[in-house]
Amino acid sequence: MNKIFLIAVLGIFLYADKVLLPESTVAVVNGTAISIDERDKEVGKLLPKAYFHSTVNDKKLKDLQEKALESLIEKTLFYSYAISKNITTSESEIDDVMTKLAVTYGSKKNLENAIKKLGFTKETFREVVKKDETLKKLYKKEIKYDISEDELKDYYEKNMYKFKEPEKIRVRLIHVRNNPEDPEGKSKAKKRIDEAMAEIKKGTPFGDVAAKYSTAMSRIKGGDMGFLHRGRLDMAVEEVAFAMEIGQVSEIIEQDIGYFIVKVENKKKQNQLSFEKVKKGLKRDLKNKEEDKRKAALLEKLMATAVIIK
User: Fold this and answer.
1) Distance CA 252, CA 308 (A)
2) What is the DSSP string of 189-245?
3) Taking the CA atoms of the chain, what radius of gyration do you get in angstroms?
């Protein structure tokens, strides 16, 4: 039995509610230790790019460490399972991967430098490659789902109601916000929207009026919001807009957040999307859903008998 595993098991009996693991170890999964270094490298993979050049607060770092550890526990369980099923990766296969990586990095020397920067030795990096390649084989054998064209068509035909493009309208919007912190905020907003309406009635192009009077970001595009389906506008504005005809301009619409004037530029009726149009996305979604289901089922099976100490 693994020495670290023995230490951890003894810790259960000696300290009851507090398991003592070696300082460099954050978890033991069926006798396989997961080190702090492994967890921290996994955190690096999960860390959003936005944080690369800024400080990560303690709570965010703790959350990332927990996610990283859970990911490593899953990988450890899957890897052990793969080995038990005689799914392995040979040294020659690892060599092939290293050769391809060297080509990607421009040279063998560049690859070696990159490996060092990541905190790996040549040996530990080859071990990572071995595990990754073995997990890919396990995925292909027990998790990967290839859905046929006939299955896709059958699903589409039985669920056509899911593939309807909703009714859409293209609108231009003038929105004058009411500043609730200003005692005269509402009256100032009303004066501004009245001036905007007066300009529209004089014949000034709606887009020019929106650019001048609207306080919303859409003013940059002359108030053009593009094509929108229901649920994208303020409810009161939406109710008016969807009832209007193309080219029509609304009256002033008053809401707590300010005042609106809307113009309908175009309309698109609800449309049934063709199989060819949805096929690619549908295949991706069904494939991901089934593979997630298979992965979860296998993980549940492995977790049921696993000895995990954290």
Assistant:
1) 64
2) HHHHHHHHHHHHHHT--HHHHHHHH--SGGGGGTTEEEEEETTSS-HHHHHHHHHSP
3) 30
How far apart (Å, rounded) are the C-alpha atoms in residues 277 and 163?
A: 10
Contact 72, 308 (CB under 8 A): no
Contact 84, 142 (CB under 8 A): no
Other beta carbons within 10 angstroms of residue 69's beta carbon come to: 19
Running DSSP on this structure, what letter comes out for residue 20?
-
Q: Letter for the amino acid at 183? A: P
Residue 241 CA to residue 30 CA, distance in Å, equals 62
pLDDT in tens, 125-175: 999 999 999 999 999 999 999 999 999 999 999 999 999 999 999 999 999
Strand pairing partners for 28?
33, 309
Q: Kindly indicate the confidence band of residue 54, based on its pLDDT and cuts at 50, 70 and 90.
A: low
**DSSP-derived secondary structure letter, 47:** S
Is residue 109 within a helix (H) or strand (E), and if so which, with residue range? helix 108-117
Please give the model's pTM, rounded to 2 decimal places.
Answer: 0.68
Domain ranges of the chain: 1-84, 88-144, 150-163+277-310, 167-269
CA dihedral 95, 99, 105, 108 (to 10 degrees): 80
Q: Name 265's Cβ contacts closer than 8 Å, sequence gap at least 6.
A: 169, 170, 171, 172, 224, 246, 247
10-19 contacts, C-beta under 8 A, 24 or more apart: 11/309, 12/309, 19/309, 19/310
- Quote the distance between the C-alpha of residue 245 and its chain's center: 38
Position of tokens 């990967």? 144
Nearest alpha-carbon partner for 77 in 309, 310, 294, 308:
308
CATH topology for the 167-269 domain: Chitinase A; domain 3 (3.10.50)
Residues in CB range of 22: below 8 A, 6 or more apart: 4, 7, 33
Residue 263: CB atoms within 10 Å:
23
